[in-house]
Amino acid sequence: MTPRTALSAAATPPWRLARSSWPWRSLLYLAAGLVPAGLPLALLAGIELLRPGRTALILLLVAALLIVVAAGPLIAGFDRRKLRLVDTRPLPPRPPLRLGEAGTWREIGYAVLSACVAWWLDLAVVLLSLLPPLMLMSAPLQPSGPGAELPADAWFTALLCAAGFVLLPFAAYPITAWAGARAAVARAVLASADTDLVEVLRSRQRLAAGFDDERRRIERDLHDGAQQRLVALSVTLGLARLRVADDHTVAPLLDDARQQTAAALAELRELIRGVHPQVLSDRGLAAAIRDIAGRSPVPVDLDLRLDGRLPAPVEATAYFAVNEALANLARHSSATGGRVRAWTQDRQLVLEVHDDGAGGADPARGTGLTGLADRTAAVGGRLLLASPPGGPTLLRVELPCDR
Amino acid sequence: MRSLRVVLAEDSVLLREGLTSLLRHFGHEVVAAVGDADALREQVPLVRPDIVVTDVRMPPGFSDEGLRAALALRAELPHLPILVLSQYVEQTYAAELIDAGRSAGTGYLLKDRVGEVAEFVDGLVRVADGHTVIDPEVVRQLLDRRRDPLHRLTPREREVLGLVAEGRSNAAIARRLVVTEAAVAKHIAGILAKLDLPPDADDHRRVLAVLAYLRG
């Protein structure tokens, strides 16, 4: 697999690393690190030239620090760009530039560090890595003979030069590894892990919303397509039956066909309800919960304090939560009654499904509760379950909803 | 049998044609067949039909436009019988429809029922005559939900109750169950007594009472 960062490239065998572009990119990356160093270098040069007094010196240093702080976001932006040289993985979007934003202060701290400290470390690593092979390679150019360090032996200098050429590719390792390590630090500071996680959460939300949209589309297609055609077919069969005398041999066949059509319609209706219930899109969560409760074989009390519509993903998740909970209640709990409460508080939708059944519900044993927990998590909510053996069972779902 | 002037609102052309020929076969006249809720609301005051038959879900939003149009028509023309056809049993819709008006015939049927052509047209005529016809599926769900005093009913009484809720007369129930009308009347008296409902000879009021009871 092709490495995606300099750090992982540094773990490849020498013949591959030397042939790849990684050492050059690393070198370029480290060289580009000298750009922000321009400021402190200019400062040093200024001090050297002007030889200011103590007060002026302090003022100069403070001014320099302020300039670095002010230029922080600029330097950080530059560092983000050059990060692509040694780290091809995508970066999360840059945090907004605000005084109250933690990301902004991280950027400034990083800028101060890279302008004042990091660049000479980079320089040291590059020089220390390249010096030995370059020295060896330059052996034929060095003074030799009596009085010089090298003996006047052409074979020996040629050998040293060759050794330099052999060693040079190995200098790629410290340079690439160092650039990789620096990039890892830059990524950790400029694109911290929690923004990564936010991105994952968002993509999960988008996926969940995408599934909901898809379900709605499937429901509409089935409704407008197959279902309408089946109804029309049953009308045609009904009309055909009217034109056939009761004792005709075709009559029982037509009756049979009509019954099969009716069965197909009933099955299709149940299927569509499972995909996406129409009442949820049309009338919102409260009506849909009333509808589920109305279907429940176990009597269910409702206490719904919901007014207005909630965001579609929240409504869909809440609907499937109640559906699952009431299905479990009817199937497993041997409860004689249940209760669904729903209300909004602190920008949250809270759902509680309560029953007086046998308890002992275990998310590990069925896929229903696990799936429900996943769905809840996908919209940033959480699911709490209290179901001691012997009951009662309380399922609580909290879903964030900014209205 | 009298011939009814029907306004039909159904967005599927296939089904609209099917229903039109079905109604024609039974001697009724489709005076206007429209494909969306706005057209329905425009046509009805113009043609003054005996009954409106409408789908729930129609353009432009493919939500519950048909039902909303029906409710709006009910508010404008309180004596206009309305039969709503739905792809699904939604108790919310049934409840809204029943609550909207008790002075005129009201029907809420699953679309599947149109396949039973004779029964469907029979239901349509009953709605046009001012009765209430509720789909057996709605009744079944309501019966499933309210178990408390209902379990005192015998299976036969539950069967009769379902037929009552569908808006059938004593005579029709008697035919259906192959018993005498007197036996049906006895069952109904028993049901009403067990549910603490006042006895009532009027089919329509009786259906409403039963539905009101079932909905809790």
UniProtKB/TrEMBL annotation, chain A:
Coiled coil: none annotated. It holds the Pfam family HisKA_3. InterPro entries: HATPase_C_sf, Put_sensor_dom, Sensor_HK_TwoCompSys, Sig_transdc_His_kin_sub3_dim/P. The chain crosses the membrane at residues 27-50, 56-76, 108-134, 154-173. It is an enzyme of class 2 (transferase). GO terms for cellular component: membrane. Keywords: ATP-binding, Kinase, Membrane, Nucleotide-binding, Phosphoprotein, Transferase, Transmembrane, Transmembrane helix, Two-component regulatory system. SUPFAM superfamilies: ATPase domain of HSP90 chaperone/DNA topoisomerase II/histidine kinase. GO terms for molecular function: ATP binding; phosphorelay sensor kinase activity; protein dimerization activity. It catalyses: ATP + protein L-histidine = ADP + protein N-phospho-L-histidine. Residues 29-190 form the Putative sensor domain. Signal peptide: none annotated. Gene3D superfamilies: 1.20.5.1930, Histidine kinase-like ATPase, C-terminal domain. Residues 214-280 form the Signal transduction histidine kinase subgroup 3 dimerisation and phosphoacceptor domain. The keyword Transcription does not apply. Its EC number is 2.7.13.3. This is histidine kinase. It comes from Catellatospora coxensis. The lineage of its organism: Bacteria, Bacillati, Actinomycetota, Actinomycetes, Micromonosporales.
TrEMBL record, chain B:
InterPro entries: CheY-like_superfamily (IPR011006), NreC/VraR/RcsB-like_REC (IPR058245), Sig_transdc_resp-reg_C-effctor (IPR016032), Sig_transdc_resp-reg_receiver (IPR001789), Tscrpt_reg_LuxR_C (IPR000792), WalR-like (IPR039420). The modification 4-aspartylphosphate is found at residue 55. Keywords: DNA-binding, Phosphoprotein, Transcription, Transcription regulation. Residues 5-126 form the Response regulatory domain. The keyword Transmembrane helix does not apply. Transmembrane segments: none annotated. Residues 146-216 form the HTH luxR-type domain. SMART domains: HTH_LUXR, REC. GO terms for molecular function: DNA binding. The keyword Aminoacyl-tRNA synthetase does not apply. Gene3D superfamilies: 3.40.50.2300. One of its GO terms (biological process) is phosphorelay signal transduction system. This is DNA-binding response regulator. It comes from Catellatospora coxensis.
